[in-house]
Write a structure and sequence with these properties.
Blueprint (H helix, E strand, L loop, with lengths): L16 E3 L2 E4 L3 H19 L11 E2 L15 E4 L2 E3 L4 H14 L3 E2 L9 H7 L3 H13 L8 H7 L2
Antiparallel strand pairs: 1-5, 2-4, 2-6, 3-4
Amino acid sequence: AEQTILYGEQPLPATKYTFSMTSFPVTNIKKTMREYFDFIHSYYKRTGWRCTLVDVGYRIFQDDKSYLSYCRDGEAMTLDPVTNADDGWYPYLKEYNEFCAKRGGRPLLNQTPVLTRGYVSRTYRGQLDEFNNTYRRQMDPNNRFLNVYLKDLMDF
């Protein structure tokens, strides 16, 4: 069998792969996928950049037990672009995240680079306040586990 990604003894940055994970309600996934295909084709025509690997997706059942679940409101499907770690990735993600935000996409917070505070606060609405006030302050009163990235992203 052939490998999709060929790793050398000491991989160069361009031989590594990276991805982003965002979920969408299953009720709108067909429309969202059509719009995503239009988005990636348009982005490629405009910039000459595209993901170098096959995108993936997962069906995720509702998880209403986690405050910061990306499928707390119901069953979801993910659209996950995958690519080599090259210079075009972060500019692409900026526009991809905007695309997702406009369609109610919920990022998996620890797997989605280039997020903005506005996108996260709109997407996770009251969940962030509930998490911060109910658990984080109680379990971590001295902010030992609150790094600079999360503090800025979640406005804690």
